[in-house]
Amino acid sequence: MDVPAVLFVLMKMYLYLWEMIMVGAGSDRRLNHPPPPESTANRRIKLYGERNSGTNYLSRLIRLNLAVREVPGVVPGHIMKLQKAIPGMEMLRDLYFRLTYHRNLGWKHSRVRPPKKLRRHRLADSVGFLTVTKNPYSWLLSLHRRPYHQYFDEDPDLLTFLRSPWRTVGRDECGGDLRNPIELWNLKNASYLPLADLGGLNLTTESVLLAPEASIEQIRQRFGLTRLGAEFRNYERSTKEEGKDNAWYRDYYLHERWRENLPAEAIATINETVDQDLMAHFGYRVLSPDS
């Protein structure tokens, strides 16, 4: 057997033993989430959104305000510890989602499978599907600053980055590497639209920042959830960067401060590949390099 095949077998055995230990302990750690109130124990949300799109912030808002369980979308800590001891930067994490898809419906940053394939898994019948999309121009600037899973020999400038191939990981579910990171935005966000057939709700990063309480109310109404309290609770701290808070992100994105870092040539490069119909669907306008 080759190394991937051996890892596959070992991972399957490990996950089986871990699950048995957790079930025996009566722990809800299997889902990486504290148990919700008994009255909502069967209500769950599955959140999808690309990296740097505000999924962590939206998850925090949901946990603070709604009586609902979120289906996990990241690799649990015990798998991350195991990854450090095994060769292959992404292999173990990809294997984890391959083996546990029936329990979590994949990585939260993945390209979403079409409804017909999702319905093959019983879990899809009992969750509310929620997605979050970010303006492609500001998203690509963020991805350039934090190019997850790309392992460059040296950091590329913005134009080189936009014109370079994007190396996907297995759990991206994109079918292989892409011509550039702009294609990643197209593929991931287009995959959210068919979730309407399953009663899904599509939000944008900007709408959540503009009106977080209204966004929570949209989620509550769409999925028939219960509020945890009469008063809305916001999450004011940054989920990633020290020295930044909710007010900073609101100003930066809602007033489009990011445009100061986006040269005309970068706008033109993005416009060549970005799906402009998809942009219009989410309410984003195409920028002119001359503006």
CATH T-level topology of the largest domain: Rossmann fold
Spell the H/E element sequence: HEHEHHHEHHHEHHHHH
Q: Please tell me how large the radius of gyration is.
A: 20 Å
The coarse overall form would be: globular
Strand segment count: 4
Rounded average pLDDT: 87
Number of DSSP helices? 13
Q: How much of the polypeptide forms β-strand, as a percent range?
A: 5-15%
Topology, element by element:
Elements: H1 3-25, E1 44-49, H2 55-65, E2 69-70, H3 77-83, H4 91-104, H5 115-118, E3 127-133, H6 136-145, H7 158-162, H8 181-190, E4 201-204, H9 205-210, H10 212-223, H11 246-254, H12 264-273, H13 276-281
Parallel strand pairs: 1-2, 1-3, 3-4
Helix pairs in contact: 1-4, 3-4
Model description:
It is a single chain. By secondary structure, the protein is α/β, with parallel strands linked by helices. It has 2 domains: 1-31 and 75-103; 44-73 and 108-281, Rossmann fold (3-Layer(aba) Sandwich), CATH 3.40.50. The protein is 44% helix and 7% strand. The protein contains 13 helices and 4 strands. The chain has a 4-stranded parallel beta sheet with strand order 2-1-3-4. The termini are far apart. Mean pLDDT is 87; it is low at 20-41.
Outline of this structure?
The chain is of the alpha/beta class and 291 residues long. The chain is 44% helix and 7% strand.
What descriptive keywords fit this protein?
single chain; 291 residues; alpha/beta; Rossmann fold; 2 domains; four-stranded parallel β-sheet; 4 strands
